[in-house]
Specification:
heterotrimer; A mainly beta (198); B mainly beta (85); C alpha/beta (230); A: 198 residues; mainly beta; Sulfite Oxidase, Chain A, domain 2; six-stranded mixed sheet; five-stranded mixed sheet; 31% strand; C: 230 residues; alpha/beta; Elongation Factor Tu (Ef-tu), domain 3; Rossmann fold; six-stranded parallel sheet; three-stranded antiparallel sheet; 12 strands; 20% helix; globular
């Protein structure tokens, strides 16, 4: 492996804030496994279904009317970039899950475009996760997952599913899109859980 | 975001198969479209590289690199036809 | 290193044990930082198989990782790591015949420079029509070489400028559409072999336009890249 003279790549910065193997970027790279869906807001809804008494849905208007929080967090992508101090606005998953009592332990997020990702419910509760519809004070751009995406900043960013349309609550875990193709089932960036077996 | 095409996978596929694979023919199991690897719609920015059918978005090929190993899945393609090199 | 436009540079490489390439193929360039960080991008080969050097023409993308390094930082004598040549689909050699229609958006012209140089060096008798789309005359790469190539009776070069054109411009203006493809290319009856290279949206427009004009999709080869400049 020969070093390319003068190529600095991306520099690791504040190591206390940057998980192992990650590089800080100032850009916001667009990561995508398929075409960008453009769902009209009048047909958009967010649904919690699965192991619940009855499914709960919010229209875009109803979702916008839910209490929003401003969130500033660092995000860590498995492709090795970390972006510090990203600012979002969205609805806490505590608010959404309170409306749908459940015995389930796992959630599978489902999205426009067919993407899915699995997260233990415990990781979505306790002020750790949101469904966000604004980034940097602006409506969330479709390229970055708008109208709304999941935000679970303590896990690798593929868990923060773009174009989210709801959660399916499940008694047992089921791998999502990348998890099925060999990425880690949980995805803790501080333990560098990138791939199955890490 | 605009996808690239299968030409962008030429290097990695050459590493895997030690020959040009961009001219390999296939049929999509989703819609029956036939084509060559070079014509697939390729999303190369994610954790892995995803190649989809240009007509129906079915995932044809998935390529990822982990711990020094390439992993290749072909969930949506059949009838691979390879010209003699 | 040759500056083509303010954003585009051609880099000549001296490569040990180069196995030779076909016109239209590309190489993957891999850069490694001192801390081990690596990144890789594909670039079309701009030189013909018959040329002494292997050269790449690189457009600098502002949000790119590799192209700003290659255009701004790389100096004569530096070493870079390559994989290739790779790709056989978007390659042309004389045996594939024609007539040839080459459609380039912005730096999509790069692989066609290799094909046209190969066409000349191999003494090909295949008639070629080349259509290039650029934002302005200043941003059109290989201007001098295109003028020389157009002197060959077998090679027709058409240029369309999409953003600004000189007052005395005698070429085409505006984005490619079926009318322009029909005027500058071959008719479907002549069964041309067509290569289209450029940013994704440009390639889609050109390919769809030719299919609408009755061309056989099986004789249209496409290569898309993430650049700009059409």
């Amino acid at each position: 492996m020969a070093v390319s003279r003068g190529f600095v790549g991306r520099r690791p910065a504040d190591s206390a804030r940057v998980p192992p193997g990650q590089y800080v970027t100032r850009d916001f790279p667009v990561l995508s496994a398929g075409p960008t869906p453009y769902t009209p807001l009048d047909t958009w809804d967010f649904t919690v279904r699965g192991l619940v008494n009855r499914p709960v849905s919010w229209s875009w208007q109803a979702f916008r009317a839910l209490p929003h929080e401003n969130i500033t967090v660092d995000i860590h992508c498995v492709t090795k970039w970390t972006k510090l101090d990203t600012t979002w606005s969205g609805v806490s998953l505590d608010t959404l899950l309170d409306a749908a009592p459940t015995q389930a332990s796992y959630a599978l997020a489902f999205c426009d475009g067919g993407y899915t990702t699995n997260v233990p419910l415990a990781d979505l509760r306790g002020g750790q996760a949101w469904v966000v519809d604004e980034y940097d004070g602006q409506p969330l751009d479709p390229e970055h997952g708008g109208p709304a995406r999941l935000l679970v900043p303590h896990l690798y960013f593929w868990k923060s599913a773009k174009w989210i349309r709801g959660l399916e609550l499940r008694p047992a875990d089921e791998p999502g899109f990348w998890e099925m193709f060999g990425y880690h089932n949980y995805g803790d960036p501080w333990k560098e859980q990138r791939y199955q077996g890490d | 975001m605009h996808p690239l095409d299968g030409n962008a996978m030429a290097g990695v596929m050459h590493d895997l198969f030690a020959r040009d694979m961009t001219t390999m023919g296939y049929q999509c199991t989703g819609c029956g479209k036939t084509g060559a690897v070079a014509e697939m719609a390729v999303y190369a920015s994610g954790p892995g590289t995803v190649a989809r059918c240009r007509d129906c978005d079915t995932i044809l090929l998935m390529l990822s690199e982990r711990r020094g190993m390439y992993c290749l899945d072909a969930p949506g393609m059949t009838h691979a036809i390879l010209p003699l090199a | 290193m040759t500056v083509e436009t303010p954003r585009v540079t051609t880099i000549a490489l001296a490569i040990r044990d180069w196995p030779g390439h076909r016109a239209g193929q590309h190489v993957d360039v891999r850069l490694t930082a001192p801390d081990g960080y690596q990144t890789e991008r594909s670039y079309s080969i701009a030189s013909a198989p018959e040329d002494a050097d292997v050269s790449l023409t690189v457009e600098r993308l502002d949000d790119g990782e590799v192209s700003p390094y290659l255009v701004d930082e790389l100096r004569p004598g530096d070493e870079i790591e390559l994989r290739g040549p790779v790709g056989g689909y978007f390659a042309w050699d004389n045996e594939l015949g024609g007539p040839l229609f080459l459609v380039a958006g912005g730096s999509g012209l790069v692989p066609f420079r290799s094909m046209l140089r190969h066409h000349r060096a191999s003494g090909s008798r295949v008639p070629v029509r080349l259509l290039c789309s650029a934002r302005s005359l200043e941003l059109l790469i290989y201007r001098e070489e295109l003028i020389k190539l157009a002197a060959d009776d077998l090679v027709d070069v058409s240029v369309t400028l999409t953003r600004e054109a000189p007052d005395d411009w005698r070429g085409y203006r505006g984005r490619i559409d079926p009318a322009l493809l029909s005027t500058t290319g071959w008719s479907a009856k002549e069964e041309p072999l067509t290569y289209i290279c450029g940013p994704t949206a440009f390639v889609e427009t050109a390919a769809a336009g030719l299919v609408a004009l009755g061309h056989d999709p099986g004789r249209i080869r496409t290569e898309r890249f993430g650049g700009t400049g059409v």
